Amino acid sequence: MKKLDLYIIKKFLGTFVYSIALIIVIVIVFDISEKMDDFIDKEAPLTAIIFDYYLNFIPYFINLFGSLFIFIAVIFFTSKMAEDTEIIAILSSGVSFKRFLFPYFISSFVIALVSFILIEWVIPPANKVRLDFEEKYIKNAYRNRDKNIHRQVEKNVFVYMESYNNFYDIGYKFSIEKFENKQLKSKLIADYVQWDTVKNKWKIHNYFIRDLDGMNEKITSGRSIDSTINMLPEDFTQRLNVVETMNMQELNKFIDEQKMIGSENITTFLIEKYRRIAFPFSTFILTLIGVSLSSRKTRGGVGINIGLGLLIAFSYILFMQIFTVFSTNSSMNPLISVWIPNLIYAVIALFFYKRAAK
Fold this sequence. Notes:
By secondary structure, the chain is of the alpha+beta class. It has helices at about 5-40, 45-85, 85-90, 95-100, 100-135, 250-260, 265-295, 300-330, 335-355; strands at about 145-155, 155-165, 170-180, 185-195, 200-215, 215-225.
């Protein structure tokens, strides 16, 4: 590694850290002004606001908009180097454009590695504290509005509820069906089921049970009965962003559990999983586009390159949102929807690279 490499790496990482630190301060100021009424109304302690919310907000924000600020940093300092004819001097000394990119990709690798560490070990526990704070002091109490809830709680055991009241932990119009070899063996129907906080069990009220054995049928009924159904009240009180508190191992286990119970939100959880890999990879793509765009001196100066860079960066974010919506609301594979923007912009990056290398 030569002095030139260290010079560019220092410029890259320094500009990235400075720009994202600056925008974090601005975002926090605006966020405080927006949420001040909530903090006052719900009497949030100052220490909790600082250490539980905003301190844990920072790594989440860095990872969320890291790719955008990498692009802005590359555009800014590379355009400045081109404006000062530094790049012309570097290339005139015999350094190829491909070799010139080496320190950029070293910097991108460092940032991608930090992003992976944040995603796996820092952000999940930080998000847990931050989201707990939001539940307590910012958001209204969660209300389960799901209707006609179907869940597989065990192998060949299915539960149905017309609705669920998470304030009182009551499921209405409740039923359990048990199958063997695709044949219905038992069905329980009840008016409602309620969680018993003393026994930590579900209590089924006004039930009616049909046990089937070939052509024979046994019917029993009663006022109430305890049951050890493989489900908990927490299963009905979780917001979708609960996956933000899980590392990759926990997320994979959670997705498997949600697949077994037949959750309708599997696509959302899979998108979160695949994004954690796609986002660090986008660092290299946006870096290549940024260098290729801004390595030439233009008449409009640095402003033209920054404006064009912002347009491309925001269009990348827009593409990610569009394909996320496609995957959520249609049958598009979540893995494909997450990676399509990277593939599209990888092609764009190669186009700009070949153009700049000439």
